[in-house]
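Table S5 (text form). Sequence records supplied for joint modeling of the two-component complex.
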Amino acid sequence: DQQVKQNSPSLSVQEGRISILNCDYTNSMFDYFLWYKKYPAEGPTFLISISSIKDKNEDGRFTVFLNKSAKHLSLHIVPSQPGDSAVYFCAASGVGANSKLTFGKGITLSVRP
Amino acid sequence: EAQVTQNPRYLITVTGKKLTVTCSQNMNHEYMSWYRQDPGLGLRQIYYSMNVEVTDKGDVPEGYKVSRKEKRNFPLILESPSPNQTSLYFCASSSSRNSYEQYFGPGTRLTVT
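The corresponding C-alpha cell record, covering 226 residues in total, follows.
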C-alpha cells in the first residue's frame, strides 16, 4: 500500500510560469515532509522540507504547502526555469530521530523554454 | 567536499554470482541507508544502519545483506543475484541530529542477466 502518493507522473510548464507538484499521504503518523530533486545519472538531492506544525515553508523560488486535514502537500516553483526540469520525489517521515523516509513514485517536471 | 560515493556505478552480472556494491561517506554521519529505484515504484528502502554494528531491514530486504563495521562504509551485498534485482541503487547518509535530510550517492545501475 503506497503511503505517499504522487498521482501525476509528469508535468510540463512554460518557463516563467508556476509549477505545482502535488503529493498525498495516508499515514496520519507522518509529521515531517520533504521534497527531493533528481537529475538523470545523479542521486536525489534535498530541496525543501516542512514540519507538521507548519502549513508553509518558503526557500527562494520554492514553497511547500501542507494541509494536514487533507493529508496533502504541494511544492510550488515560481518562476519555473529550464534548470528545474528533473524528477521530484515527495517523502514523509514519522516521529523520532532516524525515522525512515517513505518516498512517493516521483513526478517528472519539464520546463519548456 | 562532503559526499557519498558508490562503486561501481554500473555493473552487469549473471544470476547467482555474488557481488558487493560499496558505499562510503565522509561526513561522519551515523545513519546510512540503501534504496532501490524502479520504474513506477519510486525509492524503496532496502536496509538501514543507525550506527556501527547496528543494522535493520527496510521495506524490501529480501535477497540483500549489509554490514556496518566502520562508520563511513556501508556495503550492500547480493549473495546470489537474480534478474528481479536489476535496478538502480542509491546509498544515503544523514546525521543523527537531522536524519530526515539524507545525502544520496550518485547511484549504481545493476543489471542481472
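Note: The interface with chain A takes residues 4, 31, 33, 35, 40-45, 48, 50, 58, 90, 92, 96-97, 99-107 of chain B (CB under 8 Å).
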